[in-house]
């Protein structure tokens, strides 16, 4: 069991210092309670962009980008905060059909949008393969990939997934002109050696810290001896005020 790593509402418990500001919400009431913190975060940011994500989804399913000033746009998505499942049963006495409504709380995360360094004017992220073995050896594969969005970056095109989503599957499915040679490249083919070394040092450090932290809670990460699991960990890269590239961890799975 590795929910502490693949659930977006649990990952901040173990890697918050390496992630953009993240809040767990399940209703519009929750969102209203964090607006002040969002405003404070935006004072140190170049934009007021945020993203709403399902806690237990992958492949960019259910992702919604929005400006903080347009936070009301998340209300129709959140609804009443519950997922309603309808099931029927005909095991009761003849001619009686019973309908059962099953409700469960659905959590999402509101996360600060990370505006990465652009590559040829387009957003990108790093996909790093991390192998976890037994109790608990962790290996990072250094030949990581640079996955590039299909359309040029713009803060005004929030409804265009080809601008903001760098997931390879989404771009392959929605872009008939998807170019694997340009949009799925080795990090070492994109940046000079000193940048690659800097980024990978941070990737190793963040991965080490994350697995050590989550490995201490067997309720959220239950490792098993003589078993292994391969994780795909996503990192964003951006330049800081000193001109050095820094990596942060939006999610993994």
From TrEMBL:
Gene3D superfamilies reported for this sequence: ATP-grasp fold, B domain
This protein's name: Tubulin--tyrosine ligase-like protein 9
């Amino acid at each position: 069991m590795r929910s502490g790593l693949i659930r977006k509402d649990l990952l901040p418990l173990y890697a918050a210092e390496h992630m953009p500001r993240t809040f767990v919400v399940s209703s519009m009431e929750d969102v209203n309670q964090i607006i002040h913190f969002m405003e404070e975060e935006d004072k140190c940011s170049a934009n007021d962009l945020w993203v709403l994500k399902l806690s237990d989804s992958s492949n960019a399913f259910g992702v919604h980008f929005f400006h903080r000033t347009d936070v009301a746009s998340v209300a129709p998505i959140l609804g009443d905060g519950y997922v309603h499942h309808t099931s029927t049963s005909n095991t009761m006495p003849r001619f009686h059909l019973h309908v059962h409504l099953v409700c469960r709380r659905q959590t999402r995360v509101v996360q600060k949008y990370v505006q990465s360094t652009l590559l040829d004017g387009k957003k990108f992220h790093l996909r790093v393969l991390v192998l976890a073995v037994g109790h608990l050896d962790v290996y990072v594969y250094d030949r990581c990939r640079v996955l590039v969005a299909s359309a040029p970056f713009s803060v005004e095109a929030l409804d265009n997934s080809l601008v903001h989503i760098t997931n390879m599957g989404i771009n392959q499915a929605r872009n008939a002109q998807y170019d694997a040679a340009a949009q799925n490249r080795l990090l070492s083919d994109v940046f000079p050696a000193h940048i690659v070394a800097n980024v990978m040092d941070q990737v190793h450090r963040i991965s080490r810290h994350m697995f050590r932290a989550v490995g201490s809670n067997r309720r959220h990460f239950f490792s098993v001896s003589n078993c292994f699991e391969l994780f795909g960990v996503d990192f964003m890269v951006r330049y800081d005020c000193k001109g050095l590239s820094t990596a942060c961890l939006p999610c993994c799975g």
